[in-house]
Amino acid sequence: MKILKILSLLAMPLVMAQQSTRFVYQATLTPDSTNVEKKTELAYLDTDGKRSIFYAENSMKRDSVMERMRATKNFDRSQMENLRSNLQFTIEKDLANQSLVYKSRIGRDNYSYPETPVFQWNILPETVKIGDYQTQKAETKFGGRTWYAWFTQEIPLQDGPYKFSGLPGLIVKVQDDKGDYSFDLMQTKKISELHQPLNRGQFITLSKSKYTEMEKKMQKDPVSFFTAQRSGGGGRGPAGGGGNRPGIDPKQMQEFQKRMEAEAKSKNNPIELK
């Protein structure tokens, strides 16, 4: 028994070392430039120090609801009405290589693209205490915007919300110069493992430029894009093949068209402008 107790004590630091960390950010967004009302929601950055995943809190809640519905076979989608997110993507980073995989859904299908963003950070002399952390300001240009970040060397992790990384410490706050997008660290907590989002189907891997091209097609004419996907046309990209799917009656199509067009118009101010 003594030997077992000793082994258990020796194993405890190893278990603790294997714990991951969740950084909880408040995301403040202006996805619609014609509507000055900002959207706020929480987003999670889960990391084990070698890799990280960034995703919306509502995404995890939706996954939980889906798993519960599958288990109970009670598919009441009204449970998801308040779980919509303006951060409809996940970003998986390899911190050693400062590379990432961006995953999202366009229309009916899942897409992903690899990227190694180049952040040319200009570290500024300005320092400020944010919450419990002493931070320093930095500036960069990315995605057609000028960004300001505040990082802390008290957490020696070259990571941050969204795609941002590469500073000598965790990014506690980052915002663009127009105030359209900002991410602010609200909470830090230990978790047993990184969250693995539910995947509905396989991901089609594209280049970033091809993904952006498809996203623009979807924004410009969502109904035609969906129709192409249903018929196995150009909407699916190089993977091809949509299979035969049941048709939609004209009334449903009209309602769908209005909804999709309104949603596309409301997303005219993306986080990356180019």
UniProtKB/TrEMBL annotation:
Q: Region annotation Disordered: residue ranges?
A: 226-274
Basic and acidic residues bias locations? 256-266
The UniProt keywords, alphabetically, are: Signal
Per the record, where are the segments of Gly residues compositional bias?
A: 231-245
Q: Which domain of life is it from?
A: Bacteria
Q: Which InterPro entries does its entry note?
A: GLPGLI
Write the signal peptide boundaries: 1-17
Q: What is this protein called?
A: GLPGLI family protein
